[in-house]
Amino acid sequence: MSIVYPIVLISVATFGYLAENNPKCRIKKNGKIIIGPDPGAAILLTIVLILVSGLRYRVGTDYFSYYYRRVPEWKGVLYNLLHFKEGGFSLLVKLSRIIYDHSQTLIFISAAITIGLFCWTIYHYNSMFLLSIMLYVLAGEWQEGFNGIRQCMAAAIVFAGHRLILEKKIWQYCVVLFVASTIHATAVVMIIPVFLFNRKADLKQIAFLTISAVIARFSYGIIFSLIESYKEKALNTASGYLTNTVSIFRILVNFIPVIVYIVFCRKDNHTKEQNFYINALFFNAFSMLAGMGSAYFGRIGIYTGAAVTIGYGHLIRLIDEEKTRNIVAFFIVGMYLVFWIYSLSDIRNYLWIFNQ
To answer: Cα separation of 131 and 78, whole Å?
Structure first.
C-alpha cells in the first residue's frame, strides 16, 4: 500500500477531530444560530482529499479514459445537452480545457466538485462530524471517485440535494436528479428514495426491503431490458462487468447498520431526521443485496452509500446506553477500516501527476 493513503487517513482523522472539538457558531439566513464544526479544519481536510484525488496519475480503472477524453466541439456539447446524452459532463470537459489546456485538468476539477459537494453536505448536516468524515473515506466513497468519475460526481450532486426529500420538496429534488443525470444517466435511480425515506423505519420496513431486494436480484433480465430501452443501446452482456458478483465482504459491511439497529437501537420515538437517515442506511444495505449478482448493478452503492456518512451518527444516537454506544461506534470504525484496506487493492500504487 502506498504511504499516501495512511497519510490521508491520519490527516482526515486529525482535522476531523479538531473540527468537531472546536465548534463555531454560525448564523443561518433565517437568523437561527447553529453551533457546528470548525470550518477552518473542515476546509483543510477537504483540500487534502481534493489534492490527493485530483493530482493522481494512472490511479483508477477509468483514469486514462478521462485523461485522454476527446474534447467536444461546442455544437457537440449543445447536442448532448438538448438530447439528454449526459451533456453536463460534455460541458465540463469543454470548460476544463478552456480553464487550463492539460489532460489532468478534467480529473482535478471533477475531484474538486465531487469531494467539495460531499464534504460540504457532511459539514452542514452531520450529527457526528468526525465519524461522518472518517466514514466518507473508510466506506470507500472518496476512493470510488478514482474509478467512476462521472458516477461519483452525479452521486455527489444527488447527495447535496438529498435533504429535499426530508423537507418534502419533491419537485426541487427532481431538478437535482435531472442535473445529476446530465453527468451520469444512472442518477435517475435515486428517485426511489422519494417513496422510502420518509416512511417509518422499523422491522416492517426491513421486511419490505428484503422482499424487494430478493425480487430485484432474480429480475436482472427484465432490468437489463429496461436499461437498454432507457439508454437506447444494447448492453455488452459478454462483459464480465455485468456478470461478476459483488464481494460478499462489501455486502456484509453494508449490513452492519441493519444488524446494529435490530440488536441495539430503540425502535420508537424517532425524530423525522433519524427516521430519514435510518431508512437511508437500510436502503443502501438492501440495494447492495439486490445488486450482489452483478458488478454493474452493484454500482448503485455509489449513490446509496453516501447516506452511510451521515446516517451512522443518527443510528448510534438511538443506542441509549453510553457504554454500548461507544463500543458499537469503535466496532463500526474498526470494521470499515478493515474494509477500506481491503478495497484499496485496486489502487495500491499511488503516483502523483508530477511523477509522470
So the answer is: 42
Q: How many domains does the chain have?
A: 1
CA atoms within 13 A on the CB side of 6: 3
The reported pLDDT for the residue numbered 125 is 92
How far does the chain reach from its first CA to its final CA, in angstroms?
A: 19
Burial class (CB in 10 A: 0-12, 13-18, 19+), 18: middle
- Whether 17 and 130 have beta carbons less than 8 Å apart is answered as yes
Note the pTM of the prediction, 2 decimals: 0.93
Alpha-carbon dihedral 347, 135, 190, 62, rounded to 10 degrees? -10
DSSP per residue, 198-242: TS--SHHHHHHHHHHHHHHHT-HHHHHHHHHHHHTS---TTSHHH
Domain span at residue 271 reads: 4-355
Q: Which residues contact 36 (CB under 8 A, 6 or more apart)?
A: 23, 24, 26, 123, 124, 129
pLDDT higher than 80, residue 347: no
Q: Quick one: which of 106, 136, 105, 144 has its CA closest to 120?
A: 136
Q: What are phi and psi of 55, to 5 degrees?
A: -110, 20
pLDDT digits (tens, 9 = 90+) for 182-218: 999 889 999 999 999 999 988 899 999 999 999 988 8
Cα separation, 202 vs 204, in Å, equals 5
Q: Are 162 and 306 in contact (CB under 8 A)?
A: yes
Identify the residue whose cell numbers are 485522454: 68
CB distance 310 to 132 below 8 Å: yes
Helix axes 256-264, 203-217, angle to 10 degrees: 150
Whether residue 120 contacts residue 157, with contact meaning beta carbons closer than 8 Å, is answered with: no
Conformation bin of residue 137: beta by default, left when phi > 0, alpha when psi is -120 to 50: alpha
Dist CA 32 CA 15 (whole Å): 26
Sequence letter at residue 303? Y
CA–CA distance, 355 with 209 (Å, rounded to integer): 48
